[in-house]
Automatic annotation (TrEMBL), chains A, B:
EC numbers on record: 6.1.1.21
Record-stated family: Belongs to the class-II aminoacyl-tRNA synthetase family.
Pfam families to which the protein is assigned, alphabetical: tRNA-synt_His
The protein, known as: Histidine--tRNA ligase
Domain of life of the source: Bacteria
């Protein structure tokens, strides 16, 4: 063995990796999410991990967090490439749609499940590399409003199928906020939206303070904004509650109509899964209508696990066409890691195999391999033990890997094949051509 | 629309991305590969895209190609993190095994399908971001030789199932090379291996020249090396051909025994799929036994599409345990992109949907949504058209997305549901509760 110094083998902080028994569950999650997305006819898109920096920064967001690339032994000229890792899947998607505009069929409905990178300080729920699962619909000139309801429906189906702990998808409409703010005489609604978006972090008093000191609102205006933000209702009844505040305006009416339509469309979902919450603002400037933000009920301080909204023209930096869209992003790694940390995720087996075929003796190894091949030909997942060895050791190997069944080829020419059910401990003769593991 | 300058929306050169109808085929490939890997009981591992630079460079290889990371607006101190994107999956796997040594069950058999990055100049078959599919077996102290045969068997099953054009997996054994070179009195066999590995690029004459001028071999030695490298045989008969060169030695015998055993184990595979080729050397120093290299038969200059071999102790930089292993990497993106470029890959549909449900009129939209929900509840993949529109336009949308069936909810209360088969053009009444698309 080498005497060279040992390099510390840990993964870098903020870059999670899982043991096989956890990874197998993550794979099941990814498969489940993909099945639900495809059930609604969304197609898969993957974009490069790397984009030109001017693409990444076209929207002017989160520039601090971007990781840029440089070849290890690059000369100065090489730096001109100006490449960075993507920090979300929305900007690359907008770029993708612009790049392939003439080859795509609109409305374009895609899902995208990829890793993204942010140079943040790692803390609970924040990673520097994580996987997001996004769905977006983008269209030329106009995206029908019913997609604003279809996306939370899909998210509901995903989270329900995954069996995650209780969560609420809060929904609002930027037009309601902007129309309301304009209706009470506020000149710069976007600044008020940005301040209102900090409600979670600084509370109503903090928001009221910033509204007066920074945005220049008077006390009545600030109070009206807080009254609006306090409204929360399970359905389209939210409209009456907003109207009761006595503010009027066309944009407000339009927003309330949209919000009510979306909520009505979702009225069949279980109570509490989708709720109108007028405090939801979403900090990003590009949202123009419906906005979404999902949170765990039991961990209100954990931050959002899904978010998104409707945007008027995200691809406008790349192409001179109006391409509005609506999208939601599911924070897969954030949710998954939280449940893992809370002990709410049951690890799976450390092997995908249905069966371990034992090798009774070196002489009978060929027979064991033939048995494994016969089972594989029937679609079963089969490990063969790697050498002739004590049977107890081979069975223990299956137990440690969580393999549910152990197959014993005949130990003598006049004997049968046998299979042992590791859960019950029962062992019985079995036919290579017909045996299947009982359904889980 | 904004008058801001347009940012060029193309993906960066060397970072491939596919249209939905190509991505859907890539997904099918990935699913197929995963199914085959799991059929042999290999478990999935994913490691972070990013490793500490001292981990990446522990083996001293390919340092030029490594992309290092830096936060966009980092201060000088931030650079100390010294992070880089992985350039293969073998080094991260070795680090992973060392990090989780006490939690893994050995022999540890894993597959890993991930993107890797190399700061190379893009050209045919060379990308800066691409996906590799690796399988490796790693064990404490000893890995049974039969795994050296199992891996090419799995690769054979993968490539056959994918239906790629004819290829050959060339196989050799480093012990044969080293034993042979020692047997003819060469002092530094590794240097000769590195020179022999360039046969493809510089030909026999170039190799002979380097062997004499750089490695200091005499003419007889150089000729013997070329005679060895010229040997190529479909099975264990290769042993006789090597013996005929009259060189002797224990290590040579050991290597020939191993090579014969592996070839015998694979004798049932179709002729030409696995061939002993004594010119295969693999440049990397860490291989110690069996080595593999697969190539397309029809494009001999395209370079290798799979490669790998047996290594004595790849994790030795990270942990003071002897962890030998054997592995093969399938160059997925390289193969996929080549077939795409050659026109040998038939794009799939641009939507995963089995059915498009049309919306006959705005009044009947709820009925269309209900029909779609009923079909989805039975596991079908269903798009609903996004608005009431001319039927011809809705059917054309299905055609452009490659959706095989169009579903017509009743246009009047006394009518039936109907479904149109887009391939045959036939339209017939259909039952929401029983209809399924005919198997493809």
């Amino acid at each position: 063995m080498s005497d060279a110094p040992i390099v510390r083998p840990l993964p870098v902080s903020g870059f999670p990796e899982w043991l096989p028994e956890v990874r197998i569950v993550e794979q099941r999650w990814l498969d489940t999410i993909r099945v639900v997305f495809e059930r609604y006819g969304f197609c898969s898109v993957e974009t490069p991990s790397v984009e030109a920096l001017d693409v990444l920064l076209a929207k002017g967001e989160t520039s601090q967090e971007v990781y840029t690339l440089r070849r290890l032994q690059a000369d100065a000229a090489d730096d001109s490439a100006r490449l960075g890792l993507h920090f979300d899947l929305t900007v690359p998607f907008a770029r993708y749609v612009a790049a392939h505009f003439n080859e795509l069929v609109f409305p374009f409905k895609r899902y995208q499940m990829q890793r993204v990178w942010r140079g943040e300080r790692p803390q609970e729920g924040r990673f520097r590399e994580f996987t997001q699962c996004d769905i977006d619909v983008i269209n030329v000139d106009r995206v029908p409003l019913h997609f604003d309801a279809e996306l939370p429906r899909i998210v509901h189906e995903v989270l329900t199928t995954l069996g995650v702990p209780p969560w609420t998808l809060n929904i609002n409409n930027r037009k309601v906020l902007q129309g309301f703010y304009e209706g009470i005489g506020i000149g710069d609604p976007l600044e008020v939206i940005r301040i209102a978006d900090r409600m979670d972090k600084i509370g109503p008093a903090g928001v009221a303070d910033l509204l007066t000191t920074r945005a220049g609102l008077d006390a009545d205006q600030a109070r009206a904004c807080l009254d609006l933000a306090a409204i929360r209702a399970p359905g389209a009844g939210v409209v009456d509650e907003v109207r009761r505040l006595g503010v009027k305006g066309d944009l407000l009416d339009e927003g309330l109509d949209e919000l009510a339509t979306v909520l009505d469309d979702l009225a069949d979902l279980p109570a509490g899964s989708v709720v109108a919450d007028l405090s939801i603002a979403r900090g990003l400037d590009y949202y123009t209508g419906t906005v979404y933000e999902a949170k765990f009920v039991d961990w209100p301080d954990f931050g959002s696990i899904c978010s998104g909204g409707r945007y008027e023209n995200l691809a406008g930096s790349f192409i001179r066409r109006s391409l509005p869209g609506v999208g939601i992003s599911i924070g897969l790694t954030r949710i998954f890691a939280k449940l893992l940390a809370e002990g709410l995720l049951t690890p799976g087996p450390a092997s995908p195999a249905d069966v371990l075929v034992v090798v009774p003796t070196a002489e009978r190894r060929a027979q064991a391999l033939a048995a494994a091949a016969a089972l594989r030909a029937r679609g079963l997942k089969v490990e063969t033990y790697h050498q002739a060895d004590k049977l107890a050791r081979q069975v223990r190997y299956a137990a440690r890997k969580g393999i549910g069944h152990v197959w014993f080829p005949p130990f003598a020419d006049d004997r049968d094949h046998e299979v042992k059910d590791m859960a019950s401990g029962e062992q019985a003769t079995a036919d290579l051509d017909t045996w299947s593991p009982p359904p889980a």
